Structures are given as structure tokens and as C-alpha cells.
Amino acid sequence: MKNIERQKSLDKEKWLLSESEKQDMSGKMGYCQFCNSCNDGVCVASQSEREKGVLCATAYNRADRKRRKQA
After folding, report:
1. Residue closest to 29 by CA, chosen among 60, 69, 66
2. Neighbouring C-beta atoms of residue 1, cutoff 10 Å
3. Model confidence over 17-70: pLDDT tens digits?
């Protein structure tokens, strides 16, 4: 999956989870700790910055690489 597609998928997943949890889940997803824009569970990037820079997809990929390395 290309990063732009992954970003859209992660944004949708995060939006649905935010709705069900009744709080913004930006900065609280499992891959957020691998993002340079996340500080202590708070995402400092705007939605447009996340989309433009595919920040969530990049963080997801970093988390995935680490997970595969440990397996």
C-alpha cells in the first residue's frame, strides 16, 4: 500500500475510533509514538499537515518495521 493510501485508511480508522471513544484520538494511536509530531500523546501537527506529509503512514511504517524486527 502506498503511503497516501495508508494515510487515508489510518485517518478513517482514527476518525471512527474518535467517534466511538468520544474524544480526539490524534496522538493516541499505537503508531503515534513513532511520529516526530507526537509529544506525550498529543499530536502537534494539524490534519492538513498530517495529510500533506503522510505523517501517520510514516509512523505506522516505522512501528511495523520495529514489530517485524522483533518477531
Report:
1. 60
2. 11
3. 999 999 999 999 999 999 999 999 999 999 999 999 999 999 999 999 999 999
54 CB-near residues (< 8 Å, 6+ apart): 3, 4, 6, 7
Cα dihedral sign for 25, 57, 50, 40?
A: positive
Alpha carbon distance 11, 47 (integer Å) = 9
Contacts of 64 (CB under 8 A, 6+ apart): 31
> Which DSSP state fits 43?
E
